[in-house]
Amino acid sequence: MTHTMGPRIGGPMRQAAIGFVFVLLAAVPTAGAAQSPLRPLEVHTQSAVPPDDLDFGGRVAARGTVVVASGSTPGGVAEMAFWKRSGGAWTRTSIPGPFPGFDAAPVATDGVSVYRAIPASPSGLTLQSLSTAGIGATASGATVGPRGLVWETVYASGQTSTEADGLAATVLAFGNFAIGPALAVTWRDLQTSPLQAQSHLVILANLGALWAVEHSLTLPQAGALQVAIDDHRLALGIPGLDQVQVYERVPSPSSSTWQLRSTLFAPPNAIGFGESVALSGSRLAVGAPRTELCVVPPTIGCGPRGQVYFFERQGGGSWVAAGSLLSGLEGVPIDAELGTSVALSEDGSRLAVGAPGWPHDEAEGGAAGQGAVLVAHEPAGASPLWRQTALATSAPPELDRLGAAVAWADDDLFGGAPQHLVAGRISGAMLRFSEEIFSDGFASGDVSAWSQSTP
Fold it and tell me: For residues 177 and 206, which has the higher predicted lDDT (pLDDT)?
């Protein structure tokens, strides 16, 4: 399927620059800066005694009333589980496993079914769906177990590999179309060598009785592609090329096409641009977790903090730069890896940013790698700055790399913590934080509605 080249933004393709950007932070007061860190309401693990060295929570996806999380061991064994919300309670269902042969465990949900990618199956990369209908808490409070869970294959790439690593799936993402949901998956073909690896994107549309391929794209030396879909638009992060491409779906009577509307190039000194992307309506957030920044005053120092860049869609369909997150925040430590993961709420008004390297409580000897999730709210009035409304951390603080993955499910925020200890073993967890939306919509900067309870 063909696509039309869109306008370029920012400049020509380039290598990651070595240098620093100076950011004035102290002059910008941040809402809730003096608040205590937000603590999780719940800590979800795969099981009471999960496998050792499982990075559960490394992948988290949410939509509506369904959340799914996964992880894998260094030996390529994956574990998965999903949760459904009934009222205010989330009910957990373990997906029967483990699944050997997974060197990654990509998962997704459309709010009805959960989806997984099998990186190296006999048919190449395979996507499968599992319906969650009828699973969860019953009216009597009993839990319907995983009996009868059946995976159905919705796509097989047909590309096989002679190497053990085979096809490494990287991302699954969902969006809603008028005709139904769409699924995008990216992966890298490692049949030859990392230097010659090709990156692939396939977009599938649900036509009711079947899934049909609407678009496919292959890029050489593009790295691990990242993708986000919202409505009829798709953002493709290409960190190997320091750019993000934005596509729009153009329907037609015979077959719909996807056209490239804009190519967004990394701003100067942005490193890792496109390693995470989030899309909601006309708003796009792009993470660059290894960006070097110097902040004022000089006592804060220079170093790799990470950054998130914003883009807005214009009336003609092009996308333009709309500032950056650290223009309005203060106190982000060196090695925070801010922007490793990003998630926009469904209406685009709230942003969650993962910073798995965040060393909170530094004055008390905190170490890098404890992790955090920073929550910010959209600009208010004439201000172009996003406002920090909460900083979510684990409780008690531990080296769990919270923020490796983030996802919104209405007012519930989920953060992956793949280094979380369970029964004295590194097995990972998914943490839930909950917010009660109050009438002023954060205009006062009050974050008291965020729960401070501990698990």
Answer: 206
Cβ proximity of 361 and 347 under 8 Å: no
Q: Which residues pair with 422 in a beta bridge?
A: 425
Cα–chain-centroid distance for residue 342? 5
Extract the tokens encoding 26: 């102290």
Residues in the chain, overall count:
455
Query: How is residue 131 written in tokens?
Result: 């319906």
Q: Look at residue 117 and give its three-state secondary structure.
A: strand
Cα–Cα distance for residue pair 373/327, rounded to 1 Å? 18
**18-22, 36-40, 402-406: which has the minimum mean pLDDT?**
18-22
| Domain 8-434 is found in CATH 2.130.10.130 | yes
- CA distances 161 to 119, 125, 171, 221, Å, are 10, 10, 19, 18
CA distance 393 to 199: 34
**Torsion angle defined by CA atoms of residues 306, 307, 308 and 311, in that order, rounded to the nearest 10 degrees:** -140
The pLDDT value given to residue 435: 61
Q: Is the pTM of this model over 0.85?
A: no
Cα 433 to Cα 428: distance, rounded to the nearest angstrom: 17
* Domains of the chain, residue spans: 8-434
Residue type at 288 in one-letter notation = A
